[in-house]
Write a structure and sequence with these properties.
Distance between the termini: 33 Å
Protein name: Molecular chaperone DnaJ
Strand content: 15-25%
Pfam family, one: DnaJ
Number of strands: 12
Organism: Pseudarthrobacter phenanthrenivorans (Arthrobacter phenanthrenivorans)
Helix content: 25-40%
Structural class: alpha/beta
InterPro entries: Diphthamide-biosynth_chaperone (IPR052276), DnaJ_domain (IPR001623), DnaJ_domain_CS (IPR018253), J_dom_sf (IPR036869)
Number of domains: 2
């Protein structure tokens, strides 16, 4: 039986990442049980049918995936439960960071899954456990016609940097590559989720030298370079994930792979400039991103509902 508050995935008892074949099979099973001719009730059968009609249509499913979890998150926030940069009240994650006298950083601890898998966990996992335990999901994907090869190489350098320098320090961190933003049709090169913090990452490749970042452009030798427009995506993702602290990072790679080049000086910001996105070289991103993720509440938590929604956005 299902209730009116269940998501379409819960109604059909499938993971958020279920394939078309799995959805069809789940619908046949659910319809046989829910159909009034087989002892079910009409209301349940209507919910099963509505769930199938939504999830089997790619366009309707994409639209549903962008919104189905938002209502629950906002309700929790308004009730004093999950809120910005904090775990839901009463969760295993909140217990992790609120033990009296516990000042130890838990970022290096084994992952804790919320909701948990196995006994006492959710009846229908949003994603399989084998998928949730992976630290890296997806790869840079070819898109567009011009400059695709250079972009892919640049993104691969970022993937290698995150995989080798950040993920080992935070076992619960999950890297998702090649996303389409759940908020709109824009692209997100990389997203790193750890506990209740989410970092969106993109990259640039610039010659070695000293650059000055003023909040809007990188200036070098009389030349100004505007970084990729990531701030609006950060704002959009913060809106649909109000329980998280979402930040943006643009890592500037040097041609020779030196993590400390180019040098980026952060100058005084113009009036009205916001520090929504950090502009850093590779060494700066490793240092800053590890600090950002590890200093959040319950950094050893794998937030399964958020991870599931991000995985549905991979190209």
């Amino acid at each position: 039986m299902t209730d009116g508050r269940s998501s379409h995935y819960q109604v059909l008892r499938v993971a958020v990442t279920a394939t078309e074949k799995e959805i069809k099979a789940a619908y046949r099973r659910a319809a046989r049980t829910a159909h009034p001719d087989h002892g079910g009730d009409a209301a349940t059968f209507r919910r099963v049918t509505a769930a199938y009609e939504t999830l089997i249509d790619p366009a309707r499913r994409r639209a549903y995936d962008r919104t189905y979890g938002a209502g629950e998150s906002r309700d929790s926030a308004s009730d004093g439960g999950a809120h910005f940069d904090a775990p839901a009240a009463g969760s295993r994650a909140s217990a992790t960071v609120r033990r009296p006298g516990n000042s130890r950083n838990t970022a290096g601890d084994p992952p804790v899954y919320v909701p948990p898998y196995g006994e006492g966990g959710t009846a229908v996992p949003l994603i399989p456990f084998g998928q949730a335990r992976q630290q890296v999901h997806g790869m840079p994907r070819k898109r567009g016609i011009f400059g695709a090869e250079a972009r892919i190489q640049r993104e691969m350098r970022t993937v290698q940097l995150l995989t080798r320098q950040v993920l080992p320090a935070i076992p619960a961190a999950r890297l998702i590559n090649g996303l389409q933003s759940p908020a709109d049709n824009s692209h997100i090169d990389h997203a790193v989720l750890a506990g209740y913090r989410l970092a969106l990452v993109n990259s640039m490749l610039l010659p070695k030298g000293a650059y000055a970042w003023d909040g809007r452009t990188l200036n070098h030798g009389g030349r100004s370079v505007a970084p990729p427009q990531l701030a609006r995506v950060v704002w959009a993702m913060q809106e649909i994930f109000p329980e998280l602290n979402v930040t943006g990072w643009t890592v500037v790679h040097s041609p020779d792979g030196n993590l400390h080049e180019p040098v980026i000086d952060h100058h005084r910001r113009p009036a009205g400039a916001l520090e929504t996105v950090q502009i850093v070289n590779a060494a700066g991103m490793v240092r800053g991103l590890k600090e950002f993720l590890a200093s959040g509440p319950a950094p050893n938590t794998v937030n399964v509902p958020v991870l599931a929604r991000l995985l549905r956005g991979m190209h």
